[in-house]
Amino acid sequence: MAFPCYAVNLPSAPTEQDFRPVDENIVELGRLLFFDKVLSGNRNISCATCHHPRFGTSDGLSLGIGEGGHGVGTERVPGTGKARIKKRVPRNSLGLWNLGAVDQSILMHDGRISEADTYENGFNTPAEEWLPAGFNDLLAVQAIFPLIAQFEMAGNLNENEVIGAVHDRIDYAWPIIEERVRQIPGYRLLFVKSFAHIKHPSEISIVDIGNAIGAFVNHQWRSYDSPFDDYVKGNGDALTDKQIHGLALFFGEGKCANCHSGKWFTDNKFYALGLPAFGPGRTRRYNDIARDLGRMAESDDLDDIYRFRTPPLRNVELTSPYGHNGAFKTLEGIISHHLNPEVSRSSWSISQAVLPEIREFKKVDLIIQNDRLEMERYTQKLDIEPANLGEDDIDALTAFLLSLTGRSALAQSMIIPDEVPSGLKVDK
Q1: HSE-up of 255 (CA within 13 Å, CB side)?
Q2: How far apart, in whole angstroms, are the C-alpha atoms of residue 244 and residue 239?
Q3: Scanning 229, 238, 249, 427, which has its CA 20 to 30 A from the CA of 358?
Q4: Within 13 Å and on the Cβ side, how many CA atoms surround 32?
């Protein structure tokens, strides 16, 4: 069965020209840095811990177990003793697919890292005017911020010199990380070999570290070899009948493509979906209330309250759970929520998330739902309207989303290095 293509405008299939160019000399260096725990405050967590190839470049959890935890993905535990985690990572770990695209100009659930000249350095970031100069692109800039985030990679106060420096000023920690890398013989050789402008290891900077990691992510996680891409290129047999029905719904009656548009299936805008509220949340600076204000925490615009960036959908099958807080472990769950948020919230339970129970967080995990006024404000802000689709339609939409999984995306474990220059353990 061939889908009548004249009925809908499908996005064109991406090509290599859709991505920012990378210097292949630094891709391998970036791979090693991505998996190396030396970049974290306590040398116990790497970028790959929460963006692991075995979990679709995410971690399989609704809210991550960051600094202080042990293990990878759904097997990760909160640690023990004084090193035990102090807080869940407040938002769902994003997948890293296609972030090196040339039209990618904004990142994170709340868009707090973007291309802009707000601070006359080309980027709008939490570092504001203190962001160092020389980054190749947005992806390189983004790579250095988890390193200084307390509950992600930096660690807690009094645990190490990195987190102490962060609390003095956001950019004070990066020179400490630079010096760590400079002291490792393997990295000294690789940086001098990989970067033409580095003549001596003393010149290695956080900008070089970010550029290397960004180049690796850009190069490694390009994905556009899915059955959907084959279909767009003219292979009418690439999709099943159910997937074709789902495609028609996605671009038609379901109105999914109103927001999940273009080659990457995102318009990069922000919407309030009214997802079930739980977890520590991420609010304004110096605000410790367990709620998530979404885009407003970055923009300070009241109209942005509870709005989050439209996530891209390529390889979405691999990046469960779904939503800014990972409220739904299944595609069927998040699709059903889009169709009727109010009904979805009323029937939701924590079992629909992937949230390993941590005794001391049990009360905090759902405390926001006891805040009557906050919940009234939250439920009134909604940017999607209910749609009258049945169970068969949900099955078809789910089947279509599975057609966005790239063939090469299914075989990523081989990129995990056996060892890294620091000698620290690699998360397998």
Answers
A1: 9
A2: 6
A3: 427
A4: 19
**Judging by beta carbons within 10 Å of its beta carbon (0-12, 13-18, 19+), is residue 404 exposed, middle or buried?**
buried
Strand partners, 270: 309
Domains 16-58+94-222+411-415 and 225-402 share a fold: yes
Query: What would the two tokens of residue 248 be?
Result: 């028609």
CATH superfamily placement of domain 225-402: Cytochrome c-like domain (1.10.760.10)
**Is the distance from CB of 224 to CB of 275 less than 8 angstroms?**
no
* Angle (nearest 5°) at CA 16 between 12 and 18: 60
Residues 136, 181: Cα–Cα separation, whole Å: 20
**371: exposed, middle or buried (C-beta count within 10 Å: 0-12, 13-18, 19+)?**
middle
Torsion of CA 281, 103, 233, 246, to 10 degrees: 30
Taking a C-beta distance cutoff of 8 angstroms, is the pair 210, 143 a contact?
yes
Q: Quick one: DSSP state of residue 344?
A: H
pLDDT band at 2 (very low <50, low <70, confident <90, very high): very low
Q: What residue spans define the domains of the chain?
A: 16-58+94-222+411-415, 225-402
176 and 162 Cβ atoms separated by less than 8 Å = yes
User: Cα(28)–Cα(323) distance, rounded to whole angstroms?
Assistant: 32
CATH topology of domain 16-58+94-222+411-415: Cytochrome Bc1 Complex; Chain D, domain 2 (1.10.760)
Q: Identify the band that residue 3 occupies on the pLDDT scale cut at 50, 70 and 90.
A: very low
Gap between the Cα atoms of 160 and 134, Å rounded = 28
Rounded to whole angstroms, the Cα distance separating 256 from 249 reads 8
Asked whether the CA dihedral 100, 207, 58, 311 is positive or negative, the reply is negative
Handedness of CA 313, 318, 323, 329 (dihedral sign): positive
pLDDT tens readout for residues 319-339: 999 999 999 999 999 999 999
Does the predicted model carry a pTM greater than 0.90?
A: yes
The amino acid at residue 401 is L
The answer to whether the CB of 322 falls within 8 A of the CB of 401 is: no
- Dihedral over Cα of 151, 331, 323, 370: its sign: negative
- Encode burial over 102-138: b for 16+ CB neighbours within 10 A, e otherwise: eebebbbbbbbbbeeeeeebbbbbebeeebbeebbbb
